[in-house]
Amino acid sequence: AQSVTQLGSHVSVSEGALVLLRCNYSSSVPPYLFWYVQYPNQGLQLLLKYTTGATLVKGINGFEAEFKKSETSFHLTKPSAHMSDAAEYFCAVSSWFNQGGKLIFGQGTELSVKP
Amino acid sequence: GAVVSQHPSRVICKSGTSVKIECRSLDFQATTMFWYRQFPKQSLMLMATSNEGSKATYEQGVEKDKFLINHASLTLSTLTVTSAHPEDSSFYICSAKGINSNQPQHFGDGTRLSIL
Fold this sequence. Notes:
- The complex is a heterodimer.
- Chain A is mainly β.
- Chain A has strands spanning 2-7, 10-14, 19-27, 32-38, 44-50, 56-58, 64-68, 73-78, 87-94, 104-105, 109-114.
- In chain A, a hairpin with a 5-residue loop joins strand 4 and strand 5.
- In chain B, 0% of the residues lie in helices and 52% in strands.
- By secondary structure, chain B is mainly beta.
């Protein structure tokens, strides 16, 4: 079984400040991990993914995440927040063993960026 | 990057009508497509998984006769909400995935369904 927990349903940062969105997962098999961003009334856009290999993953828009197996975490970071980063962020887990690559989503974290 | 087109983006219709939503993968072959439902300020809830040429697999609690899914080709899946009622009003999102196991899902822009 797999599950995802996103700590904090809402995070607020100032423009230019560090962004840290937390994600912890549970998986009985090697996980594939994803971060998606959703803007209002839109679908999800992939920010980055981890499948195998390098544990520090760089994505689009300056975001990156680090897979830490010992901590079962996949936190999303960005050194300097921009106003355009305000959106809903979803962490998700899957695995090769899940038929069709079924995604299990966290509850989401709403990021607000203050000027 | 991979593009998934979902149509229509918004539908408003009367109670009792049926509504069809299309999901197309524009530049890759989608062996698997997923249909999600999202309530305001909530995460995505997987409704069903469809593989091209076979019957969809529905999640527990999702009525297969209410939400008809067809995946007739490698680029098109449809979701039909039959005899829609106000409680079916929601944001419906599709995603598509290629054959490789570590490929991510690519999402459509969603359909806002409002039943009056």
